[in-house]
Amino acid sequence: MPAAELVFAVSGRERHIVTSEAAGVALEFAGGDPRLAHASALCRRVAKLAPAWGPYSREAALEYGPRCPDCAWILALHRGDVDEEIAAFTTVNGFDAAVITARLGEDFGERLLDKIAHDPALWQGADRLGPSHRSQLLGHASRHLPTVVVCEECAEIGVANAHGYGETCPEVGIICSGCTVAADGVWAGEWEGTVLAECTISAPCSVLTTLAAHYEISIGTPAAPA
Predict the structure, then answer these.
(1) What is the pLDDT of residue 160?
(2) 144/37 same-domain check
(3) Average pLDDT over residues 170-185
(4) Is 90 exceeded by the pLDDT of residue 159?
(5) Structural domain includes residue 127
(6) Which of 19, 20, 59, 215 has CA atoms 20 to 30 A from the CA of 205?
(7) Do 60 and 149 have their domain in common?
(8) How many Cα atoms sit within 13 Å of 222 on the Cβ side?
(9) CA-to-CA distance for 194 and 151, rounded, in angstroms?
(10) For residue 22, what are the domain limits?
(11) How do beta strands 38-40 and 14-19 pair?
(12) How do residues 14-73 score in pLDDT, each as one tens digit?
């Protein structure tokens, strides 16, 4: 195990954060074998330790992804890294940003997460490295942020090769990855992670529209001047 305050763990497709103390308890129960150790993550889900990935850091987590948003926000709130975490969850390439802005308005994700992060009505709780009212809402909102999708041909060979230089995919759209079902498990084979047409949910989903209404954020309009 890496000698660090925080380490990685895996549950399903998500990468979790585990404290060294929780990892130590898990190792003791596993007879010292990290390959058999399951620990309680910051989000309180049970996850398998991943010592080969080394100490936890946001930069490393973005490479191994997808991250557990709940764990990420618990740690960000504890460390005061709110702005950095908002950027990590909302920064996309220029094309995707333009597509999302056209549908939801400028900086929609950033505005929503910022409102939640600074809402004085949300209860923090006594455990600074555990779930709270604020971290739960931030984690849930982050799971439902929009994702840009294109046709299968674009996904495989790129938009320029599929439709010509300077062209846009005719099937481009935005979906909610949190609501949409993706192929998962042995049966999926090489298509693992591909969204299933039977349950592809457009963005913004009702999670985002409900939160936006609560925080009085208009969808599909530019951000107000600072």
Answers:
(1) 79
(2) no
(3) 90
(4) no
(5) yes
(6) 59
(7) no
(8) 3
(9) 11
(10) 6-67
(11) unpaired
(12) 999 999 999 999 999 999 998 899 999 999 999 999 988 989 998 898 888 789 999 999
Residues 49 and 102 in one domain: no
| Predicted confidence (pLDDT) at residue 124 exceeds the cutoff of 90 | no
Whether 35 is covered by a domain: the verdict is yes
- Other beta carbons less than 10 A from residue 14's beta carbon: 19
Q: Are residues 13 and 103 in the same domain?
A: no
Percentage of the chain exceeding pLDDT 90: 64
Residue pointed to by tokens 């003791």: 28
**What's the pLDDT score for residue 117?**
97
pTM: 0.89
